[in-house]
Structures are given as C-alpha cells and as structure tokens.
Amino acid sequence: MSGTSKVIFSGRLDFGSKDIFDKVIAMYEQRLEKHYRSDIVLRETEEYFNEDNRSFYIPRYVAEVSDRTWKNTINLLKFMAQFTIAGSVKVWVINKKKEVQEFTIEPENDKSAVKAFRKGREIISEKGDAEEAKKSLNYAIEKFSQHAFAYERRGRVNYLLGNLEDALYDYTKSINLFKSHPNAYLGRAIIYFKNKEYNKAIADLELAIKHSIPHQEMFWISKRMKAECHFYLKEFEKAAFELKYFTMRKFPPDNYNYKWKKFAFTLYGKVLTELGRYSEAVSAFSSAMEISGKSENISEQLALRGLVRKKAGLKGFKKDLTEAAKLGSKMAADVLQK
Q1: How many C-alpha atoms does 248 have within 13 Å on its Cβ side?
Q2: Is there a domain that residue 139 lies in?
Q3: In the listed set 84, 105, 126, which residue is the last one of a domain according to the structure?
Q4: What's the pLDDT score for residue 293?
Q5: 208: CB partners within 8 A, 6+ apart
Q6: I need a surface site. Which of 76, 164, 175, 192 has the fewest CB within 10 A?
Q7: pTM for the full predicted model
C-alpha cells in the first residue's frame, strides 16, 4: 500500500514557440487522462499553463498526497521538460520521518539555448571561468530573449567579474521575466548590501525568503543577511527576530550556512546587548566561542562577553577582558586600563 508525503512544487518551464506550447498542452491533457488517470498533483491545466508567455508556472503548491501521486506528477513534468527551452521546477518530498528528497526538473534537450545555458552554468560552477561562462550565457539569451534563468546566472557571473551595474541589470531583468525567482532577488540584494542600500536589500531579501523554503540554503542566507541589514539600520528587534531562528537552526557541515553560525551568534550577541538583554547576549557570545572557526574572532567575542557581563553586573567579566587583551584585543586592553 502506498504511503503519503508532504510535497512542495515550485518553478516554471518555458516553451518558446506557440506551436510547441499548444502541442504540449494537448499531450499533457492526454497523458493526464489516459496514462495517469488524473492521479497527479497539478490537474487544473488552465491554472498552470500561461498563454501570454507560453510557460508552465507553479508559484507554490503544497499538499499531502500519496507517494504514487507525486511520482506520477514528477514523471509528467519530466515528460514536458523535453519540449522546453528554459526553466526549472523544484520539488521537495517530506515523508513521515521528516526526511527530505529534492528533485530538479529542467530541460535536457539539444536546443541551442538549453545547451548554452547548461554549459555556462557548468563552467562557472566547476571551472570558475567567469569570462567563458558569460559567453555561453550571452548566447543562451540571444537564442531565447525571455530566458530568466540565464539572466540570473549571468548576473552572478557579472558580480564575480566586478561588473556590479551589469549584474544589477541582469538580476532585475530576470525578476521582470520571472517574479518568483528567489535566486535573482538574493543576487540583487547582495549588490544592494554591498552598496549599503540596506532598505532596498531588505525588500529583495523578503521576496527571496517568500519564494524559497527552509529546506533551501538561500532561505537562511537571506535570513542572515536581512538581520545584518536591520543591525546596520539600528532596527535591533527585527534583527533579533531573524537571528533567533538562524542560530537555532541545525545546519549539516556541507551546508553553506554552517560556516556562518559563529558570525551569527556574535551578531546576535551584539543585537541582544543593544536591546539590554544582557544574560541572553552572554549566552550568544559563549555559543559563538564554542563553534570552531577563525581563532582571531575569539578575542572579539571574549571582549564583548566581558563588556556585557560588566554591564549586567555578572561575575567573570575581568577574566574575559584579561584573556581578550592577551589575545590582542585593543578594546579589552583599553577597558582594563580605564
């Protein structure tokens, strides 16, 4: 007997020409009725096929369904992807044990735009050759001018090359073509953050969070960056809200966010200090020091913990400051001298 799982579908597939779009709709409906007997997740054809831009678009679909149903749906999406020119659909399946399976459905055909995009993405991921990757992505965009995913990836390449204005253009173009693209919002937010345009960065980070899920690395990258923006804007309550959940999250060592836990606890300690929550701040700085990382940060965390303990009238502040000074903290040395 088939079990059930929670499933999340999100993404978009582009077909390019009207002829192919109409052909795929007809095949989709035929396979839906005859092959799968309507046992799929996405049954309402008119809800997902967009005639204006000739795409299949799932903003977000969450449901508890049978394992057979979600497997049928993935197979049908893979069938459709054969005829696409661009796009990506993400699927997460969470079973009763909270184990997560992730699937990515993308075009893998011989169309020029598809091959150029995949080549450009692979070059930047595996070889790090930004200039060569950009050539392939340029070609993908030339072959399909509505390629939101190629614009987003070229934005990343331009950012790596230091072409911030070009990267900003690419990310914005990607967003205009695909309003639910979290990667593009995060990419543009990184540029705004770098330019110290924190309110603009926050607006994009909120959309990156909205259009991603907690099982994605970018969700937590966006949370942590949003907290930093609020910190620089002195919006400490909002920063504390984001950091509370980031620091509580358990990331596996191969997750990008894992290496940011030490930084996040330190920032959380600073935020809690500003809010006058001294005991919690001491705990945050202690947690930061318990995480392995750059040894030079220990002196800062010791100094900050010592200062907070002093403000709160807690024991141990002199020991913290003395150790921090020995490790090279000028701030701790100045406090001890005074």
Answers
A1: 8
A2: no
A3: 105
A4: 63
A5: 182, 183, 185, 186, 189, 218, 219, 222
A6: 164
A7: 0.91
CA dihedral sign of residues 280, 283, 288, 291: negative
**Segment 150-159, tens digit of pLDDT:** 999 999 999 9
Number of H helices, E strands in the chain: 16, 5
Looking from the CA of 263 toward its CB, the CA atoms found within 13 Å total 11
What six digits make up the tokens of 215?
Answer: 């099982």
Q: Does position 1 have pLDDT exceeding 70, yes or no?
A: no
The DSSP annotation for 281-293 comes to: HHHHHHHHHHS--
3-state DSSP assignment of residue 318: helix
For residues 151 and 177, is the Cβ–Cβ distance under 8 A? Answer: yes
Separation in Å, CA 197 to CA 19, 118, 119, 239: 44, 33, 33, 16
Q: What is the number of structural domains in the chain?
A: 2
Cα dihedral sign, 89-80-139-116: positive
Q: Is residue 123 part of a domain?
A: no
Confidence tier at 323 by pLDDT (50, 70, 90): confident
